[in-house]
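Please, structure for the following, as tokens.
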Amino acid sequence: MAEMASLWIVRHGESTANVAATAAETSGAELIDLTHRDADVPLSATGEEQARATGRWLAGLPDSQRPDVAVVSPYLRAVRTAELALDGTGTPTSVDERLRDRELGVLDGLTAHGVTRRYPEEAQRRTRLGKFYYRPPGGESWTDVALRLRALLGDLRRDHDGGRVLLFGHDALVFLLRYLVEGLTETELMALTREHVIANCSVTGWHADDSGRLVPDVFNDVTHLHRQGATPTREDEVHAEPV
């Protein structure tokens, strides 16, 4: 089977929605103070700093390790992260809607408290079905996102056999790429989501071993941000799901 030489995914830099969601959850609000639709949420000033620091790290890699191509979520926070991180590198870049963040449907813009108050039956249904399979009305389950990522991985393996591919996306995608690339079970994946919050501009990556199979290199790593003097943040996306 065709395989990439390496695959990386960078979560976007801190966004204004990340900041607003943290403030809303902390204050016990039902609604997150959002002024943009999810696709148009910009980076915060800290997020732009993180993206530029990621770019300095990429520029410092040996030629043999730098990505041959980048594929980016169409959401503004990911597009802007890629623009800043790849500025001046000449890396061929494309946008693929299969890398967009998970869609939350009617729960979009609500905190976990807001979901429990406004949609108690959905909160109960989510508890019964579990995080992996629960699909909010008008939204996507984790398995729905995995399906589109499966298709994307197939295209990347076919089109970039032996290549070094860099993705820019969202926190749920980082977890689900581990699920797909490493063959994790639902139980193993959900344990990861309980134990980790994917940091903004963190790097997760795999390389092909001698058998041609992708094996993990780094997960949720922000060492490059520390080295470049940028402020790491570990703020959740606007998930609006009861725990």
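The CA atoms of residues 1 and 157 lie 8 Å apart. The radius of gyration is 18 Å.
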